[in-house]
């Protein structure tokens, strides 16, 4: 919803040199986000994992998504876009930490299946979210678009905030036989 929708929201909300925000300006925004991501997922990631742990980083990433998408919901200026991009970029911590946490919590012989399931869930999100986001944008619900993305990230944050023991207790092994 975010990746496909952000350029459309920015085009409708922001101007650059008197023109609607276009592909070049969106490209600069993505380049800025990419630069922040290279730093966060490169040299900083290992140091942060050692210092505060993967679970805390995962939660921080979800908080970055929640806050960044909420800021985008109310973004009407370039400085606000820069702030929203910085905050949202913290969300880049989610994927590497989540993958690591999943592999640590899953028995070795089930890791391929579980990681495949997570990719399938990602694919389902890629099927559902862009049309939903497009519908909101097409009908002028730009603020709701950002708040909806923030709400989905908030659900992720709540799930990430559960204790590992709670999560294991509420899960069923992949190869468990049905009763």
What is the overall shape?
globular
The description of the largest β-sheet is: 2 strands, antiparallel
Low-confidence stretches: 169-179
Sequence of secondary-structure elements: HEEHHHHHHHH
Helix content: over 70%
SS strand fraction: under 5%
Q: Helix count?
A: 9
| Average pLDDT, all residues | 90
What structural class do the secondary elements suggest?
Answer: mainly alpha
Distance between the termini: 38 Å
Radius of gyration: 18 Å
Query: In total, how many beta strands?
Result: 2
Strand order of the largest sheet: 1-2
Molecular structure report:
- There is one protein chain.
- The chain has helices at residues 2-13, 23-41, 43-52, 54-73, 78-89, 94-105, 111-138, 142-161, 164-169, and strands at 15-16, 19-20.
- It has 179 residues and is mainly α.
- A two-stranded antiparallel sheet has the order 1-2.
- Strand 1 and strand 2 form a beta hairpin.
- The termini are far apart.
Structural features:
single chain; 179 residues; mainly alpha; two-stranded antiparallel ribbon; 9 helices; globular
